């Protein structure tokens, strides 16, 4: 069996490892246009704020470590795959150092080309004081450029924008966070938490420009000038992080794709062409709360899907369970954990959904200290199924999102959450665990609404 893997960050690395663990004799050619593999972008903000000292520690695999997994493994760095010919089972790759182009045959191909950072429809976005934030080179560029910058503008109020705003406010930079029309972190939280998070940033000195759309960038030797629909903002550096889109041009017209360009795969990571598997940011996930394809570019999905592509290449072996797009963020001294649908997102999907919001101490008042947790539970008012949850606290509450993720996966209801067995120990909770209490609040609301 000859296997070609295109792209080698998380999905590609996971696919190669799993494939070779099960079938070490496989002939594998891995193509990566960069000079590195397996970079953990999730550490970029920690590096920029100084919590993690070295970017180089954020790689967890090397070409040599992959090549050691089997006798016929070749990792081709600085090789750009220019085309995939699915009918002839071959690819054309260019060696970016020599300019040589060569065809390679395959029996099975893994498409792990990931995503592009979205470049907003703004002119002047490629000027040197305007940077993107995606990979190792971007991280180095931002670090270098930010050294002399006193005022940094961040464009985009998703996870990455918020993390960068925090990082630079911790470093006593003047930070302006420019966020378009949706509320801060609106993919992840509903309005009450979005407001709390905005406040956390503004009390640390971050200037928040909400409902402000960046339209044009310009620069001189020292400054960048950002024209927005609400006037000009001047800074020393701008970092644009407004989301990602799938990088799938190589397979256009050759496999089924969604309108957003993400590749549609079956439960075994197989595309509509049985010899082409796909995983990671290039692919749509099966989003369990809606039962539909969704685009959720997360490392969690990439490693899971990559591993499954590797496991299923020879024969269907591991079935994908879908995802709730569970994720977390540390913001100053607070922790945010989320899973599934927000109420706004549920309504956009035409679900008859409702939510409860609860703020409570996580443990009894007789303990020497306790802190508040804010919790939001989103449920379907028709069948009382749990659809999503959000947790925010100084207490490390992010695993509550993992637990609700499993409940969504298993199609559990608010009634089951209200009474499911959970531990009690005053160090950790009250006689009724805070998740039981959240479920009970939802049950009371749902009963009162239907009564
Ligand atoms: C700043 C930042 C923070 C993040 N934080 C988190 C987090 O905390 N938690 C989380 O779950 N996710 C996080 N993510 C998302 C996560 O990094 C991505 O979901 C993940 O990188 C996707 O992995 P991938 O392998 O599918 O794609 P990518 O990481 O996009 O990698 C694709 C690879 O394919 C290569 N490639 C593409 N086309 C070709 C070609 N034609 N020829 C050769 N090579 C090619 C690219 O060079 C690239 O190396 C973060 C992302 C960023 C940018």
Short description:
By secondary structure, the chain is of the alpha/beta class.
Give the helix/strand layout:
Blueprint: E1 2-6, H1 10-22, E2 27-32, H2 44-49, H3 63-67, E3 73-77, E4 79-85, E5 90-95, E6 101-105, E7 108-111, E8 115-117, E9 130-132, H4 136-146, E10 151-155, H5 159-170, E11 174-178, H6 191-203, E12 207-209, E13 214-219, E14 224-228, E15 231-235, E16 237-240, E17 244-246, E18 276-278, E19 285-287, E20 292-294, H7 299-312, E21 327-331, E22 334-340, H8 343-348, E23 353-361, E24 372-380, E25 386-393, H9 398-409, H10 414-419, H11 434-450
Parallel strand pairs: 1-2, 1-7, 2-3, 7-18, 9-16, 10-11, 10-16, 11-12
Antiparallel strand pairs: 4-5, 5-6, 8-17, 13-14, 14-15, 19-20, 21-22, 22-25, 23-24, 24-25
Helix pairs in contact: 1-7
Bound molecules: flavin-adenine dinucleotide.
Flavin-adenine dinucleotide binds at residues 6-7, 9-12, 31-34, 41-42, 44, 80-81, 112-115, 133-134, 160, 247, 250, 280-281, 297-300, 302.
């Amino acid at each position: 069996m000859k296997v070609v893997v295109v792209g080698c960050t998380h999905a590609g690395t996971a696919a190669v490892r799993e494939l070779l663990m099960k079938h070490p004799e496989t002939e594998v050619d891995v193509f990566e246009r960069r000079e590195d593999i397996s970079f953990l972008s999730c550490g970029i903000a920690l590096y920029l704020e100084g919590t993690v000292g070295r970017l180089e520690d954020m790689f967890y695999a090397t070409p040599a470590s992959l090549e050691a997994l089997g006798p016929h493994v070749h990792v081709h760095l600085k090789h750009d795959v220019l085309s995939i010919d699915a009918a002839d089972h071959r690819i054309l790759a260019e060696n970016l150092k020599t300019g040589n182009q060569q065809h390679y045959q395959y029996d099975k191909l893994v498409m792990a080309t990931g995503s592009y950072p979205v470049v907003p429809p703004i002119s002047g976005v490629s000027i040197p004081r305007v940077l993107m934030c995606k990979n190792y080179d971007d991280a180095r560029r931002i670090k270098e450029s930010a050294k002399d910058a006193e005022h940094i503008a961040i464009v985009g109020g998703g996870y990455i924008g918020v993390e960068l705003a925090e990082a630079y406010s911790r470093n006593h930079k003047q930070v302006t966070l420019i966020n378009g029309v949706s509320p801060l972190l609106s993919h992840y939280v509903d309005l009450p938490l979005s407001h709390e998070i905005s406040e956390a940033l503004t009390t640390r000195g971050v200037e928040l420009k909400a409902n402000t759309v960046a339209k044009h960038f310009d620069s001189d030797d020292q400054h960048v000038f950002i024209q927005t629909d609400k006037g000009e903002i001047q800074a020393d550096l701008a970092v644009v992080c407004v989301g990602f889109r799938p990088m799938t041009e190589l397979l256009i017209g050759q496999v089924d794709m969604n309108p957003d360009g993400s590749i549609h795969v079956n439960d075994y990571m197989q595309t509509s062409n049985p010899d082409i598997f796909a995983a990671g940011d290039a692919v749509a996930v099966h989003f369990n709360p809606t039962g539909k394809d969704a685009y959720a570019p997360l490392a969690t999905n990439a490693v899971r899907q990559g591993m499954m592509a590797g496991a299923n290449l020879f024969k269907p072996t591991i079935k994908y369970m879908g995802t709730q797009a569970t994720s977390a963020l540390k913001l100053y001294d607070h922790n945010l954990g989320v899973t599934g649908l927000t109420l706004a997102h549920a309504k956009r999907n035409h679900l008859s959904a409702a939510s409860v919001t609860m703020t409570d101490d996580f443990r009894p008042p007789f303990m020497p200290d306790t802190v508040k947790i804010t919790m939001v539970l989103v449920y379907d008012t028709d069948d009382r199924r749990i659809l999503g949850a959000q947790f925010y606290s100084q207490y490390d509450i992010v695993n509550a999102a993992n637990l609700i993720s499993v409940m969504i996966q298993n199609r559990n209801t608010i009634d089951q959450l209200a009474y499911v067995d959970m531990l009690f120990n005053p160090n950790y909770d009250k006689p009724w665990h805070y998740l039981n209490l959240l479920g009970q609040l939802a049950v009371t609301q749902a009963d009162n609404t239907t009564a």
